[in-house]
Design a protein that fits this description.
Blueprint lengths: L7 E2 L10 E3 L2 E5 L4 H13 L8 E5 L2 E5 L14 H18 L10 E3 L8 E4 L2 E5 L6 E3 L1 H13 L8 H15 L3 H27 L8 H20 L1 H8 L1
Helix pairs in contact: 2-3, 2-4, 3-4, 3-5, 4-7, 5-6, 5-7
């Protein structure tokens, strides 16, 4: 789809709206997060982390970023071990680029806070970059690892069998390089992240004028988060055993 200027409307992600591609750049509405995002993307460039767009400035109330060629999935689905391995490696590289930075401050790293497949650019079938850093903020690395484990490898639909899901969660922990204490806590962190997702979308329900989606979409996301949390809670021991 194109707008009146001929720019291509980009899809993917769940938070960003009115995002356009114009030639080799991406234009998205500036927000309160723009300054932090610009500083974060500058750190990535300084640290030679290539898995994110570059920030080019602002014009007419829009942030301008470089466009990364590739595909962004619109839906969650089962992913192969190679795809999950590449995602975990990319997340570790992103976190390493921010460790010890002024942006991270007293926290371990700067977290993306939504490193799901829907915010990943795929090339030749593998994730090579993250996009949509509007929610990025200082935090503990388990916040992002837990969200990645959930959105890349866990699904109550069990299109991938439960044991396969647990094996992929272990794969993420292995490739990322979690230490034993973090591995023992990972499933609890997944449950906490799912509960937080319910609260996140419920707050938009309470203030629909700020919501990035229609009321029925918000309700579906809350129901999905609750359903997925119940699934992980029920099979807590299966995931814990895989991580041991």
């Amino acid at each position: 789809m194109t707008d009146a200027s001929g720019a291509v409307v980009l899809t993917g992600g769940r938070m960003a709206s009115e995002v356009l591609r114009q030639d080799d750049t991406v234009l998205r509405p500036a927000s309160d997060a723009s300054e932090f995002m610009a500083s974060l993307l500058e750190i990535f460039e300084q640290q030679n982390f290539l898995g994110a767009p570059k920030y080019l400035g602002q014009v007419d109330g829009k942030d301008i970023l470089t466009y990364i060629e590739g595909e962004v999935p619109e839906k969650f689905q089962p992913w192969s071990d190679d795809q999950v391995r590449a995602a975990a490696r990319l997340l570790r590289e992103m976190h390493d680029a921010t460790r010890g930075s002024n942006l991270a401050g007293r926290f371990d790293v700067v977290c993306h806070h939504d490193p799901g497949p829907n915010n990943s650019v795929f090339q030749n079938g593998l994730p090579v970059a993250f996009i949509d850093f509007e929610l990025a903020a200082p935090g503990g690395r388990l916040e992002d690892v837990a969200y990645m484990a959930w959105t890349w490898s866990i699904s109550s639909k069990q299109v991938m069998p439960l044991d396969g899901q647990a094996a992929q969660v272990r794969l993420i922990a292995d490739v990322y390089g979690l230490v034993d204490a973090e591995r023992h806590a990972l499933v609890d962190c997944i449950l906490e992240r799912q509960s937080r997702n319910v609260r996140f979308w419920a707050e938009f329900q309470a203030h629909p004028e700020t919501a990035p989606a229609a009321p029925d979409v918000l309700a579906n996301r809350i129901a999905w988060s609750r359903r997925e949390r119940q699934f992980v809670y029920t099979h807590h021991e299966v995931f814990d055993r895989a991580l041991a």
